[in-house]
Amino acid sequence: MTTQTGYETTRATLVLPEGGTRCLLHVCCAPCSGEVIEALVEADIECEVYFYNPNIQPREEYEVRKAENKAFADRYQVPFIDDDYDVEDWFKRTEGHEADPERGERCTLCFDMRLERAAFYAYTHGFDVLATSLSISRSKDIDQINGCGMRAVSKYPNLSYWTHNWRKKGGSQRMVSISRREGFYRQEYCGCLYSLRDTNQSRRARGIDRIQLPD
Ligand code: SF4
Question: Is 161 within 8 Å of 130 (Cβ atoms)?
Fold first, then answer.
């Protein structure tokens, strides 16, 4: 079905890759994962969501994004796994890449760190498919994320990374409409302090006020 604005309202038929039966969905935030969680629930796919994002800084911003993501998963009765906030390890891992642009090498290191931990959790807890909501965002490089996901699962037997394109079949538009419907917190930068710095620099150049962080 197509809306008057031209996007499809019917989701793709979802089938887990390689005969998988149980999916661990790494989530980055509620605005990105809303559509993905709803699609998995609608398809009756057994899944749990896994929140591991030490890239979200400062801590106050992290807590707001996490709480909102948990509340959404809870509403659908999808189990929510809350892993570490090992932010010192994130800074160590990305050392030397403080000035990289978004979509550059620092982002690869950042996705690697999060998806490696997610793959380990999936493997040690009986999941056979790993997916991530990161790839639904049009501001991200889908090939970069899929490369990190495939690398992350490659060391584990019987674990696949799902390269499904969540943007297609109206997924991007539904992501936006679910965010509006739910009144999700408006995130104004990707997550790390470097992206906050760069976004504020760009806002300053355009005469826009600095981002107001949560208390
Ligand atoms: S810009 Fe976003 S993806 Fe890139 S390193 Fe920072 S938090 Fe990670």
Answer: yes
List residues near ligand 1 (CB under 6 A).
55, 102, 106-107, 110, 190-192, 194-195
CATH code of the region 21-205: 3.40.50.620
3-state class (DSSP) for residue 30: helix
User: Which residues does 115 contact at the CB level (< 8 Å), separation at least 6?
Assistant: 26, 130, 132, 148, 149, 151, 152
Given this model, what pLDDT does residue 7 score? 65
Q: How far apart are CA 41 and CA 183, in angstroms?
A: 20
**Chain segment 3-32, per-residue pLDDT in tens:** 655 666 788 889 999 999 999 999 999 999
Instruction: Report yes or no: 45 and 150 within 8 Å, Cβ to Cβ.
Output: no
Length of the chain: 215
Closest by CA to 137, choosing from 32, 25, 49, is 32
| Rounded Cα distance, 164 and 146, in Å | 9
Domain residue ranges of the chain, discontinuous segments joined by +: 21-205
Q: Whose CA is nearest to atom 4 of ligand 1?
A: 107
Q: Which atom of ligand 1 is nearest to 107's Cα?
A: 4
